[in-house]
Specification:
The complex is a heterodimer of chains A (80) and B (232). With 80 residues, chain A is of the alpha+beta class. Chain A is built from 2 helices and 3 strands; from the N terminus they run βαβαβ. A 3-stranded antiparallel sheet of chain A has the order 2-1-3, covered by helices on one side. The longest helix of chain A has 16 residues. Chain B is built from 6 helices and 11 strands. In chain B, the strands form 2 sheets. Chain B has a 9-stranded mixed sheet, sandwiched between helices. A two-stranded antiparallel ribbon of chain B has the order 5-8. Chain B has a single domain, classed as Class I glutamine amidotransferase (GATase) domain (Rossmann fold, 3-Layer(aba) Sandwich), CATH 3.40.50.880. The radius of gyration of chain B is 16 Å and the shape is globular. Chain B is an alpha/beta fold and 232 residues long. Classes of the chains: A alpha+beta (80), B alpha/beta (232). At the A-B interface, helix 1 and helix 2 of A face loops of B.
Chain lengths: 80, 232
């Protein structure tokens, strides 16, 4: 069983790395790029013995308490 | 009075802090390894600068969940004094002992230079020997020192007089140029509501001897020692 966690900056929080990447791709000639926001992606292998509700609860708690900082980031969890 | 300097894997200003307390302030001090949980013999703990856990995940994030930080939270809750410097400030924010967060510097660069900060309040155990408006020259060395918080937190910090230091120019004016990392309202350091926890990005422990280019950090440690002496 695998959990995927996506951590993204809240809208309104400055993302200087995203801005630098956007600037670079602009210099490389990519057109029509209005904005780039950088985030983090985690793949978490979970014990197959966990039932899916428990697996989701574990992944959600990890995402909330450790993987993201609620002051600046949002998260989304997928379990498959 | 006794000081503890918390040491994480990747701390690199722990010896500077230890040196200042033992030689400059002249008080007993121990290193406290991050797996320890007993802080009962200390009156003040310093969370030093560095790159705890390699800054993995977010600066200070993994250190904030280490065993010693649960004890630091209890220690602060009992009124113990906690000083977080640079990475220590990041750890205090990540652990929830101070509000807000420190994100990547606005210009992305690692900033390593002496900066000026203005003392915004002397009503703290760390700054009562300073003058309000006094300008200190202190070194900074960080890539994630850009202080952010939501509007509600900001209003609280201002109305409760908890902004302790702001970046400024040598004349004491805060502007875009003196704000070296893009921090909200030029914030360089804040304290907790109970005022016993201070976090700041500049390094006062590296500025306690003229030989090092500045001794402006010294009154911060002297203030804390004087507070402890009165309490003892």
């Amino acid at each position: 069983m695998k959990a995927k966690v996506y951590v993204t900056l809240k809208s309104g929080v400055l993302d200087p790395q995203g801005k630098a990447i956007q600037h670079s791709v602009g210099l490389l000639g990519y057109e029509g790029v209005a904005d780039i926001r950088q985030g983090k992606y985690f793949e978490i292998a979970l014990d197959p013995a966990l039932d899916s509700a428990r697996a989701r609860e574990t992944a959600e708690r990890m995402a909330r308490d450790v993987l993201s900082n609620p002051v600046i980031e949002d998260y989304r969890v997928e379990v498959e | 009075m006794k000081f503890g300097v918390i040491v994480f894997p990747g701390s690199n200003c722990d010896h500077d802090a230890y040196h200042v307390i033992s030689k400059h302030v002249g008080q007993p001090v121990d290193f406290v390894w991050h797996r320890e949980t007993d802080l009962s013999t200390y009156d003040a703990v310093i969370i030093p600068g560095g790159f705890s856990y390699g800054d993995y995940l977010r600066a200070g994030a993994l250190a904030a969940h280490s065993p010693v930080m649960s004890s630091v939270k209890e220690f602060a809750g009992r009124g113990g004094f906690v000083l977080g410097i640079c990475n220590g400030f990041q750890i205090l924010c990540e652990s929830g002992l101070l509000p807000g967060a420190l994100i990547r510097n606005k210009e992305l660069h690692f900033v390593c230079q002496h900066v000026n900060v203005r003392v915004e309040t002397t009503s703290s155990p760390f700054t009562h020997e300073l003058r309000a408006g006094q300008i200190l020259s202190l070194p900074v060395a960080h890539a994630e020192g850009n202080y952010v918080c939501d509007d509600e937190t900001f209003e609280e910090l201002v109305s409760e007089d908890r902004v302790v230091f702001r970046y400024c120019d040598p004349a004491g004016e805060s502007g875009e140029l003196s704000n070296i990392n893009g921090s909200r309202d030029h914030i360089a350091g804040i304290c907790s509501r109970e005022r016993n926890v201070l976090g700041l990005m500049p390094h006062p422990e590296r500025a306690c001897e003229d030989l090092l280019g500045s001794s402006d950090g010294s009154p911060i440690f002297r203030s804390l020692a004087a507070t402890l002496a009165v309490r003892a």
